[in-house]
Known about the structure:
The complex is a heterodimer of chains A (about 500) and B (about 130).
Chain A: H1 12-26, H2 31-59, E1 62-65, E2 76-79, H3 81-104, H4 107-111, H5 114-130, H6 134-152, H7 158-189, H8 194-200, H9 208-225, H10 233-237, H11 243-268, H12 276-297, H13 301-322, H14 325-356, H15 367-370, H16 372-386, H17 392-406, H18 410-436, H19 451-469, H20 472-485, H21 488-496
Antiparallel strand pairs in A: 1-2
Helix pairs in contact in A: 1-2, 1-5, 2-3, 3-5, 3-11, 3-14, 3-19, 5-6, 5-11, 6-7, 6-11, 7-9, 8-21, 9-11, 11-13, 11-14, 12-13, 12-18, 13-14, 13-17, 13-18, 14-16, 14-17, 14-19, 14-20, 16-18, 16-19, 17-18, 17-19
Chain B: H1 2-20, H2 25-46, H3 71-102, H4 112-115, H5 122-127
Helix pairs in contact in B: 1-2, 2-3
Amino acid sequence: MPEFLAGTELFWPLAIPLATAAVCAAAWAYPRLQQAASLVGLVLTLVASLVLLQIVLSEDIVTKQFGGWAPPFGISFVADRFSAAMVVISSVLALAAGIFAIADLRRRQVKAGFYPLFQGLMVGVNGAFLTGDIFNLYVWFEVMLIATLGLITLDRTRAQLDGAIKYAVLNLFSTILFLMAIGLLYGVTGTLNMADLARVLPQTEGSVALTVSAMLFLLAFGIKAGFFPLFFWLPASYHTATIIVSAVFAGLLTKVGVYACFRVFTLLFEVNEGGIRPIVAFFAAGTMLFGVFGAAIQWDVRRILSFHIISQIGYIMLGLAIATPLAMAGAVFYIIHHIVVKANLFFVAGAIHRATGTYDLRKAGGLMKSSPLLAVLFLIPALSLAGIPPLSGFWAKFMVIDASFRGDMAWLGALALVVGLLTVFSMSKIWIEAFWKTSPRKVARVRAVPVAMLVPIAALGLITLAIGFNPEPLVAFANVAADTMTDPAQFIAAVFSEPRIAGVTP
Amino acid sequence: MNLVYAFAIAAQMGCGVYLLLSRHGVRILLGIVLLSTATNLLIFVAGGLRFTAPPVIEQGMRMLGTETANALPQALILTAIVIGFALVAFAAALMLKTYRSVGSVLTSDHTDAEALGSPFDKEALRDA
Lengths: 506, 128
């Protein structure tokens, strides 16, 4: 890295998508130019995030105080291993989506502003992963929300408008709860910097306002992440969006909620104290079970996969419910595995739609014969999602379930195993209906799947295989990431040791 | 003083939640507006209610005086108002567009998302 860029590594994963969004918006009338600019921006973002990960690997925690204000007063940006990994994996997913968009996006959708909105979404996602300030996190959530609303209603069909209203109302409600939680927390502690909060909160006496604030955080992030009693907006809206938008949402949005939940409940509040653990355990169990049951009845590929997002969120919450370092490591591994696999399944659904002309499994069929390559590419993420060894899902499930048996939560582990079986049921349903059975139509007309669709599917499949056959580096990484995450002292030390920027005296 | 404020906020939030539970799209919208403004007031109260001077640095001084208001809650509320306004404006546009294409603002008439790919779709069964 050149000398003059030193110390700015936290800035680029935000600045590049923002600049790309501006370029795409300026080139509104030229779809080709937008596409090229978007791809360049996505590649650059990926490079920037890899550089950030490299630096985090050597320095543990990287911090930056914008404007040179000393920590509790200005806005801090912080990247530890967990957040750097999230930025990298979301950049990978965004690049895959950008390539998929070449084949899938129609001109009308580009004219409706897909590229600027998509880049805007990436700004929000990366900002949420990197910020070290709780109010700033709220702002990034709102940036994401406004971009997602634009993306859902890309085609302006009646179904999309309907889905967008449900999405908008429930997510606005969630951000209002989030803001209330921030207000109460500020009232008690007088600070908004996460590191400062982590320092102040253990010395603060417990009060009603603090308890209410913690519960509001849990509810707000619960709606965002799609926990059991609060997930209804997700299957009501995700299937209406165009498939590439669904894939990005499925991969990233709920995970941002989960990420925020992990941050708040490791750094600010303890899961082990104050009765939060039984609530999270209950949420996790319900999320796993009802997500997979919801999927069992569906026939539309997108709806099956939407319900499976919820079910998988339950596995990740399992890690937070147990809250041992082992379980947290499992959760970190699970999130990384799940972002790749879930987005890949949505891409495959897009390919199925391209080949057969329908998302409805009852009308699809015969893909095994007509495009065997697609069949193989579906099997990798599908079996990985269900947790069949030796794919990445097996190791992810193994880590969280192993942690639950060790952590006196055997019933949760048992439930997770049952849900794994039911996941196999859903995946084999897609397999049998779309790939194995002969097409129910009299004239079986199967269109070829374009290369630009197969490339991202194959690339994400390769990542799944690579994690599956060589899980050791990622397991080690997840273990260290969990150690850093569950030890607020490191986080506090990193933020407050930041040297002042020369020449600026606040 | 705090108690009066707290009751006022509680009443406003109650109204907001009541409107949010309505079936009428515009009432839902107004419910969100009430809830988000009540939240702004909540931040205001949480920041501490006292009779103090405005947080302005006097001419010739280098820092704020001792008896001045905390500027941070005001900054937070300003940010929240701007963001809330933008999102409510978008939601209103969304509701208007939906009214124009569906012909109703009642959520009981908004069934298109549910009908898309429904497992109970008779049409699909007949085709198969």
